Every structure is written in C-alpha cells, then in structure tokens.
Amino acid sequence: MIHLLFTGGTISMQRDPAAGGNVPSHGGEALVAFAPGLEAIAPYRIENWAKVPAAHLGPDRLWALRERVRAIMGSGEVRGIVITHGTDTIEETAYLLARTLPPDVPIAITGAVRTSSDEGWDGPRNLVDAASVAANPESGGRGAMVVFHGQILSGDTAVKTHATGLAAFSAPHAEPIGRIEAGRVVYHAPPRRDTPSLEPQGFGARVALVSLIIGDDGTLLDLARPEFDGVVVEAFGSGNMPPGAVPAVRRWLDEGKPVVLASRCVFGEVTPLYAFEGGGARTVAMGAIPAGPRSPSQARMELALALSAGVAYGGR
Predict the structure, then answer these.
(1) Which backbone phi and psi does 210 adopt, to 5 degrees?
(2) What pLDDT score was predicted for residue 313?
C-alpha cells in the first residue's frame, strides 16, 4: 500500500474569478479521480493533511508535516509515500525530509505548475508518476525524492529553477537519479549509502538569508543579526562581496553566530579563490563556511537544521 498525503498547492487549485486568480479547491479524492491509472499501480489510502499554498507552510507546519511523515513511515503499513505540495517551497520540504528521516521508505514529492483550469494541466501525470516511484521496489533506500515532469531528483538536490515551466525542477549541483518512461521507473544508479546525519528534536533555529547587492554596506546584515541565530549570505560569483559588507559579516562571527557563504549563481559552488578585500578567500579565512553543493535556500535549511540539532556550525 502507498500513502497519498495531500497538502495543497497548485496541483489542488483552480481559477476563481471572484478571487481574481488560482485558489486551492481540490482535495485528495478529487485529485485521484482526475488521475486515471493510479488504481492500477498499487493499493492506496488518502489523507487530506492540508489544502494550502506552499507559501503558507512556515517552520511549525513544515515540522508537523515531517512528524506526520515519520509516523506513517514508522507504522510499517506502507511501502511508499506520495506528498502533493505547492512547488514554491518543495525544495525546502524535500530537503528537510531527506536530511532528517531514514531512507528506507521512499517518499515521492510532487505538484504541478498548471491548475485544473488550465490547458495541459500537469497535475494528474505528476501524481501518477509519483505513485509509480513510491510503489516501485527499487525505490527502497532512496528516501525523499522530487518527482516532476518525468524526472526523479534526490530530495536534497532538487531546486525549483523555472517559475512556470512544466520542467520546473532540476538539480544544479547534481544530476537526476532517474526518470519515468511510459509508466516505467528507471534509476540511473543504486541508492546512495549515506544516511541522514541530522536529528533535531524540533525546527526552532532562526536563520536569515541575505542577498547582497552591488555596493552593499551590510545594513541588512546588521538589521537581521539581533533576531537570528545564523545567516546565509548570498554573495556574488564564487563567494565575493562588496568590501562594505565585510565588517557586518565579522560582527556576526564575533557574536558566535555562524555565517554560511552561498553564491547567487545557479550553477557552481563557492570556491575561496579571491583574496582581495571582500573576496571569498578572505571571508572564509574569517570563519565563514562555504555552502558547498547547495542553493542558498538549501544552505539555509541545512544551517537551520544543524543549529536545531545542536550542531554549532552545521555542514556535512
């Protein structure tokens, strides 16, 4: 049996003229009825956990969703889990589940970028594909995955890279781990053997994400510092920043608050090569931590989870 956990998002929406746009409308039963062929994949059960836009899922609700998924996994009643979710924050939810839950029971997270009011609605196909992944015996040990537009991405590498395109998700710092071809699940490699290393008891750490601009003088970094436990700085290129922002970064570090250095570039990582004032090499030498193969949003999740778990500076 697979467990279908519906949380809302565009896949659940239709256009409401009175509201002036798309709003959540369909529950799990309606979405299943829109997805012919689902019943042939595996027995399933439906849970309408929520019917909200992804932007409404804050830290508390994300943690509650994680705990619900953990309980379903621990019941021993299902071979896989499908989560329908708004695409705006799928990458945060997928990262959370991939980094804090064991990979034994596969979790296929999906959604849509078009609504049931639109021509070419992608929701039914994505739902059927996700169910195929969740039910497939080869999915065991792969943990949380994002299944979208025929691609299968590891949950800790999936990033929304197109706002409205059908192929909305990619893995800028990795590769897809598989695909769905005419209903058949094809994996490119065996499951990874590394297991989640973070075991927070909650998700209470507050981590800011500050994107730098040309000529930045650190004002936003200073304003955020009293309210947050750590910060991800979205810098230029391979980790460079305007000299005016450097003293603000130093003040975070002087207070013992971790600073993670990410890049605003979609591809590539922070590489501390430049030693001019504001260059990545000097900032890392001060104590900032390169984000590694993570987008800024993933780096923020990693640091928030690490701090919530009591790890001083996170990372892997």
Answers:
(1) -115, 120
(2) 65
Positions annotated as catalytic residues are 10
Which residue do the tokens 């030693």 mark?
275
Q: Which of 223, 248, 225 is nearest to 235 (CA)?
A: 248
| Residue whose C-alpha is closest to residue 75's, from 40, 45, 100, 97 | 45
Neighbours of 268 (CB within 10 A): 12
Low-confidence ranges of the chain (pLDDT < 50): 314-316
* Segment holding 28, helix H or strand E: helix 28-33
pTM of this prediction exceeds 0.90: yes
Residue/partner pairs of 146-149 with CB below 8 Å, 24 or more apart: 146/90, 146/91, 146/94, 146/109, 146/110, 147/108, 147/109, 147/110, 147/180, 148/87, 148/110, 148/111, 149/122
Q: Report the amino acid identity of residue 133.
A: V
Task: Tell me what pLDDT residue 69 has.
Answer: 98
Q: Are the C-beta atoms of 228 and 206 separated by less than 8 Å?
A: yes
